[in-house]
Specification:
The protein is an alpha/beta fold. The chain contains 13 helices and 21 strands.
Length: about 425
């Protein structure tokens, strides 16, 4: 039997779980984090792209914004503030075969639509920036509201590709609150932790350990049983007994693990549907594009976005390799998710050549393929009514997932903040 009766358990060692664990440890509670992967970080976990790489690279592309105050404060508190760099790399949109930078000036020069529509789109962005919350958009869809306000041409060129690329056939169902957050909360300046965000999660783990916490890696929770005396968690490496438990795994995973969960709860709170995340990462011997981020707005491309990380951070940090993400959000049954790394590269090759006709597969020095289920909540109307409260019907068990960060979009900052909020709720209940 590992752990102790007075310990508090946290399932999941990503931003959400570590945010909760650190708050509990700071409050003087003994905490045990159980993480199924070999490293901390969840969807922001990194790997070393080559033996000569001085930095780690996230398996799924990440950056932060000036408005991400929670993670900025955390980086500074952990002594990593000198590694946080702010830049304005080129973010662009592909439309009609051309790559348009999406700065304010770039939008005004976006001649795929008339100037009047560009100005109208700019006014829409200003209105979203000035609106302090999502409540004015209650009951409205992103497609319907933005088409009406920005006009059909601006919508088709600049907003519809975002919605369809990220949500596919569900694009017309997406709540306007999601689109408000996407434009309201983001800054032109982008931040990155030089050397990789893995440093942050490793430092969070060390801080929890320094406060007498325990981090258990490479261990998968398989069963949760709650009773008046506490919470029992079974794993593939043994059982743990806790006073209380915070679960940060996706709701569907929690439902499979939780013994005695009332069927009425699952019917009342079905939670959102999710898309999976998939990225193919290429290590090239030269630059592929001039942009950091290219949102693909043209039809016929098998990926949603091209993120050339080394147009943001220097290639020298990665042994001179130029690192490119080709990313997707896809329904779990999508055939591309069944492709292996070589097969997916062949699927993507014609589209890469459309973006850069000079591209030669000989440029590729290495490839990696990563896939994560439950990565993007489908934020439809009535979303909040489908979400379960953080307190579950199981005594002493709390559920806090990426889906709970609404109206904000998925991200490290909001996950860290939610983790701390879940911990505060537990501490309040525990007296």
């Amino acid at each position: 039997m590992a752990g102790g009766q007075r310990a508090i358990g946290v399932i999941g060692g990503g931003a959400l779980g570590l945010g909760a664990a650190l708050r509990l440890a700071e409050a003087g509670r003994r905490v045990v984090v159980i993480e199924r992967e070999a490293e901390l970080g969840g969807l922001a976990a990194g790997f070393r792209p080559g033996a000569d790489s001085a930095a780690t690279l996230e398996k799924f592309y990440h950056h932060i914004f000036r408005t991400d105050r929670t993670i900025i404060r955390m980086i500074q508190q952990l002594g990593l503030g000198d590694r946080l760099e702010w830049k304005q790399p080129v973010t662009a949109s592909l439309r009609n075969g051309r790559v348009y930078p999406m700065s304010l000036g770039g939008i005004l020069r976006f001649d795929a639509i008339p100037i009047a529509d560009r100005l109208r789109f700019g006014l829409m962005l200003a209105a979203l920036k000035l609106t302090p919350g999502e409540r004015p958009f209650a009951g409205k869809t992103a497609a319907g509201w933005s088409r009406r306000v920005a006009g059909p041409r601006a919508y088709a060129a600049l907003i519809e590709p975002i919605l369809e690329g990220k949500f596919g056939g569900r694009a017309n169902e997406i709540a306007m609150g999601w689109l408000w957050s996407r434009f309201h909360e983001r800054s032109l300046a982008l931040g990155y932790l030089r050397g990789g965000f893995q440093q942050l999660y490793d430092a969070l783990g060390e801080r929890v350990r320094a406060l007498s916490g325990e981090i258990v890696l490479d261990t998968a929770a398989t069963r949760i049983c709650s009773h008046d005396g506490g919470v029992q968690v079974e794993t593939n490496a043994g059982a743990y007994a806790f006073e209380r438990l915070i679960v940060t795994a996706p709701q569907r995973v929690f439902e499979r693990m939780a013994e005695g969960l009332p069927e009425s709860w699952a019917r009342r709170y079905p939670g959102p549907d999710f898309y999976d995340a998939q990225v193919l990462i290429l290590a090239l011997d030269r630059r592929l594009s001039d942009s950091y981020w290219i949102s693909v707005g043209d039809p016929g491309y098998p990926f949603l976005v091209l993120v050339e990380h080394t147009n943001f951070m220097p290639a020298a940090d990665y042994g001179g390799r130029h690192l490119v993400y080709l990313g997707n959000y896809l329904p779990p049954e999508h055939p591309l998710l069944r492709e292996d790394e070589a097969g997916l590269f062949e699927e993507f090759l014609p589209a890469i050549r459309r973006l850069n006709p000079s591209f030669d597969p000989a440029w590729v020095r290495q490839r990696w393929l990563f896939h994560a289920p439950f990565a993007q909540p489908i934020v439809t109307g009535g979303y909040l009514r489908r979400l379960p409260p953080l307190r579950t019907p199981l005594p002493g068990v709390y559920l806090a997932t990426m889906a709970h960060v609404y109206p904000q979009d998925r991200g490290q900052n909001y996950s860290l903040a939610l983790g701390r909020r879940a911990a505060e709720l537990l501490l309040h209940d525990a007296g």
